[in-house]
Structure formats: structure tokens, C-alpha cells
Amino acid sequence: MAYLQLRGIEKSFGEARVIKGVDLEIKQGEFVVFVGPSGCGKSTLLRLIAGLEVATAGSIILEGRDITNQPSSKRDLAMVFQSYALYPHMSVYENMSFALKLAKADPAVIKDKVGRAAKILNLNDYLQRTPKELSGGQRQRVAIGRAIVRAPKVFLFDEPLSNLDAALRGQTRIEIAKLHRDLGATTIYVTHDQVEAMTLADRVVVLRDGLVEQVGTPLELYDRPANQFVAQFIGTPRMNVISAAKIPSFGKDSKIKVPDGWFVGLRPENVKLVPENEGHFRAKVELVEALGAETLIYVSTEQGAQLVARQTDRTHLVVDAKVGVQIDTATAHFFDALGRIAHINHSNVAEEKV
Amino acid sequence: MTQLQINMAVQVLRTMLAWATALLLFFPLGWLVLTAFKTELQAISVPPLFFFKPTLENFSIVQERSDYMLYAQNSLITSVASTALGLALAFPAAYSMVFFSGKHTKDILMWMLSTKMMPAVGALVPIYVIAQVSGLLDSRTALIIIFTLSNLPIMVWMLYSHLKEIPGEILEASRMDGATLWQEFRLVLLPLTMGGLASTGLLCLVLSWNEAFWSLNLTAAKAGTLAALIAQYSSPEGLFWAKLSAASFMAIGPIVVFGWFSQKQLVQGLTFGAVK
């Protein structure tokens, strides 16, 4: 049974419809990540669940109880804000114990719970400091600590890592994953960074323009995207999506016929560069990015299509070199003119909507 | 002259200029204080006397002729009450404008300030008539209401700029933590705006205390403030410089002392948000 359920949630700010009808079920203990480009409504959706915004239509059910019109203070959810939003006039200890104090918990229990959370988050030495005496990473940990001492029904994270520098972001991401493994709490996490989504989530919800594009495990989204948007949003570098017209020789040997107006999607690791006269078609090297563990080679075909190939071994290729491009047809994705995923049968073409 | 000497000379000149300006600004007030301790004869003597045998005679005469304590009490009650009432009205107004701002919030703020651009005398007749009809002439209630309302725009503006500095997410965090509206106000908002409330309150206290126009026009013997007390001594019988000075001295004394001790908060309040 679903633990948290969104039914036909809509939200408008004046004329602007930000959330256009979202249905979603989240299981207890699940780590769900809302991901999407800026302005897709992911933060608004989180704020609707938190009760910081009121839904225009639809309902939110938590543990079988309708909480759509309940104020935030009664929902028993905890939120970690992007700006941390610590209480500047309180010490770290007071920040972390605030919610328990409001709930009139026993002082001994409060002390114990804060102490345990502080130990998990390595904050023991800072309990008497005020937020402004802490570094960005420490503030972030206090914000997380403030959420975990309460043992709320659901943890809500609103882009919690975007104010940290790259190194700290990676480290904190691992800590959050560990924390979730240890606590097993239901978590909803909002980010625009698909790497965070892929590494943290049990399930990822991809949003665009206030609508859910696809829900699935990280690898499901990677391997079987429902449409061109999801295909290109998940994975770095982006999936190559080329108009089928631009690669006429595609399928010369595999007898695949791609209908006009369709697009072919290829993950960079499925594009192989071979000597000039081999492969499906010819191309010219535009740029080489040697990252050490992997090498990204950008090429353009004679028909003007741009492709990026990813390989794990190093390359001797230089800009303007002529190469052949070989495609692993089994891994190719096909999109119809509207960007929906379509399937191709080797003998005759059959379209099938997902 | 060497460079060092030039620097020294500039330094000395600058110091002298600063002292001259300060003395010029302070002189009228200093002269008032001196005059308060002179006899009427000494007060009008030509050339002016700087050295004389001070007397407290004026103060006792002022106290005898008009009940100083009554005026002082009126001043105190009207300014404290109007400040408290003003804060109680301005704070929720500023709060809603900052955290629940709408399309017309800026317009409302401008409109409120624009009421301060009208000369007070323009509203004298209607307000006098209202006070008369409602039986509030020469009452502290009338003054409290008018002081509150006339200071309200400036209080809302000051509190608005103070509250603007508080990130809304902190209040949202407290709501997520389970705080009710009252707890959110008492435990989070109030401690964070204490400085702003203090400086706004102080300014309004000073403004109300110094207010002369309405207290002169709406009060007589019963509810007159210290401003009205001073005015009594520039009477048709002629100017009594020494007594006028003594009365002024007694009127401004408390607020000067008060301002001296709270100047840090006052300056902080007035320049708040100016640098950011």
C-alpha cells in the first residue's frame, strides 16, 4: 500500500499553472528523487507536500489520512531547505531541539536524541555555537540534524547540496545515502542534478512543465526512457539524438528501415569510432576531451549530424581526423516525430506507444 | 615646509573646523541652558553674559505657575502609549507586507508615506471638529490616537525594511518544525526583529515627545504635553527669556538623556538596510 499518495495535484499561481495534475505513489522507506530542469515545478511539488503551498486541486494522502488542507505544523514532515534556514539566534543544540521542544518532549529525551543525531553527523563539538560560526558544510549538517532528531514521517530535501562546493557536494551526497540506509526513512529529494538523482534514488520522478514525464529506477530511466526528453535529461554527456534522415546509411547491413521524421537515440558509449572506411558512416573529429578515465570524442557526419562517442581507452585521434562510425543497433532508441519512444521491428516497422 | 608639517597643519585645520561646526550647532542649545540659570535681567543684558551667579529661581517659578509634573506625565503617557499602540499595529502590517506581499504592496507603502507629505495643518479643522464632537478635546486619548496614526507610516516603513532582511525560509522551517503562528512569532520572528522593534520604538518615542503642533492645538490645561508648557512662556505678556529657557530645559531634558543612552540603537535603526 502506498504510504504517501498524490492524487491529481494541481497548483496555479494566478494565471500560471505550475503543476498540471500529478499522480504519484510513494512506498514507506523509499528514497524518491524529483528531478527536472529549472522551472519544471519540482520544488513547488515538494512545497505542496510540505504544506508550505496550498494545492489548487487534488489531494495528498499520508498513511491513509487526507492531509491536503492541514497546516505544515500538523503534518509531521521535516524539510531541509536549500538555504539551510537555520534559526540564527539559536545555538546548534537549540536549532536541533526546537521541534522536540515545541512538541513538549521530555528534556532528557531531547538531550538524548540531539546527542545521538549530533554523533551521527559529527556535530558534537559545535553544539554550543551559533549558525554564523559554522562553515557551509557544517550548517548543512545542522539542517539535516534538525530534521532527523524528530524522526518525522517523511524527510523532504529541497536542493540541499546546491550551495556547497563540488568536493563537499560529492561527500555530503554519500553521507545522505548512508544516512538513508541507516535510518530507512521515507525521503523525497528535489534536485536539478541528474547525477544526484541517479546515485541517491530508489526511484526517480522526472518532471517537465508541471507534469511527470516518467517514474522509474535510475537504470530503468537510463536504459528505457519513455521519451526523448527523459532520454536526454538522464546521462552525461547527453544521449545523441539525430534525425534519421541525417544517417541514411544506418541499417544498410542490418536492414532496418527508419520512417521519415523519426529520430535515432544513441548513448555515447554505444557509438564506436573505427578506421575511416569501416562502420556505418563516415565522420570528422571536432573535439577531443580526454578526462583520463574516459575520453569523449565529438564528431560530425557528412550529413551534418553531431555525435559524441565515449570510450574508456585513450585515443590518438586529433581534431579534423577522418573516422568511421559504427553503431550498436541493438542499443539504439527510436523516437517518433513527437519525441515518444517507438520500437522497430527488423523486418517491418511497427510503432508502439509506451 | 616639509610634507609632514603640511599634513600636521591640515590635521589641525580640520580639527578646528570640526570643533567650530560642532560649537555652532550646539550654541543655541548651550545658550538656552545658560539662560535657564540667569535672572530675567541677566538674560536680556547687552553684551550677553557668559559668567554670572547661577540661580534656580526660574525653575521654581515655572513649577509654581504651571504644574511641571502634570505636563511631564502627559508627555510620558502619550508618547509611550502611542509608541506601544503604533508598534502593535505596524508590526502585523509590515509582517503581512513582507511575507505575504501582493501585487499592490509597493503601492500601499508609497501611499502610506505620501500621507506624511501633506502639511498637518491641512487636516487641522476636520480633526479638531472630530475631537470636539467626540468629546476628546484636551484629552490624552486624542493625542495618543493622533500620535499613533501620524507615526504609523514611518513605523511600518522601518519595520518593513527590518523584516525584509529575514529570509522567509526561516519562518517556513519553524512551521515545518511544528510551530503555531503564535510560536512562530514569539520564538523566531520576535527575537530576530528585536533590534528593529527597539529602534523603531525609540524613534517614535522621540517623535511623539517632541510633537508640538497637535498638542498645542488640541489640548489646554488638562492634557497638555511639555511642548505646550514651553509655549505658555512665550505669552502675550511678553517674552520671559529666562523662564522660557527654564521651561524648555525641563521639557527637553528627559528626552535628551534618553536619546543619549539609546543613540546607538537609533542610528542603527535609521541606517538599517542602507548598506547591504
What does this structure look like?
The complex is a heterodimer of chains A (354) and B (276). Chain A has helices at residues 42-50, 92-102, 107-120, 136-148, 166-183, 194-200, 218-223, 228-233; strands spanning 4-13, 16-26, 31-35, 57-62, 65-66, 77-80, 154-158, 186-191, 203-208, 211-216, 240-243, 263-266, 271-274, 281-290, 295-301, 306-311, 322-327, 333-335, 341-342. Chain A is α+β, with helices and mostly antiparallel strands and 354 residues long. In chain A, the strands form 4 sheets. A 6-stranded mixed β-sheet of chain A has the order 6-7-8-3-9-10, with helices on both faces. In chain A, strands 13-17-14-15-16 form a 5-stranded antiparallel β-sheet, with no helix packed on it. In chain A, β14 (281-290) and β15 (295-301) form a beta hairpin. In chain A, α2 (92-102) packs across α3 and α2 runs parallel beside α4. Chain A starts with a strand and ends in a 12-residue tail after the last strand. Mean pLDDT of chain A is 89; it is low at 346-354. Chain B folds into 2 domains: 3-57; 66-271, MetI-like fold. The two termini of chain B are 44 Å apart. Chain B has a two-stranded antiparallel sheet. Chain B is mainly α and 276 residues long. In chain B, 75% of the residues lie in helices and 1% in strands. The A-B interface holds A 50-52, 71-74, 76-79, 81-83, 85-89, 98-99, 102-103, 146, 150 and B 167, 169-170, 172-180, 183, 187-188, 191-192.
Output the number of helix runs of chain A. Answer: 8
Low-confidence sequence ranges of chain A? 346-354
Query: How many domains in all of chain A?
Result: 2
CATH architectural designation of the largest domain in chain B: Orthogonal Bundle
CATH architecture of the largest domain in chain A: 3-Layer(aba) Sandwich
Label the overall shape of chain A: elongated
Going by helix content, strand content and strand pairing, the class of chain A is alpha+beta
Strand neighbour order, sheet with most strands of chain A: 6-7-8-3-9-10
CATH topology of the largest domain in chain B: MetI-like fold
Q: Supply the helix-strand structural class of chain B.
A: mainly alpha
- CATH C-level class of the largest domain in chain A: Alpha Beta
Pair of chains with the largest interface and how many residues each contributes: A-B, 25 and 17 residues
Query: Whole-number average pLDDT of chain B?
Result: 88
Rg calculated over all Cα atoms of chain B: 24 Å
Strand residue content of chain B: under 5%
Show unreliable segments of chain B.
Answer: none
Structure annotation, total helices of chain B: 12
Strand runs of chain B, count: 2
Q: What is the CA-CA span between the terminal residues of chain B? A: 44 Å
The whole-angstrom Rg of chain A is 24 Å
CATH-assigned fold name of the largest domain in chain A:
Rossmann fold
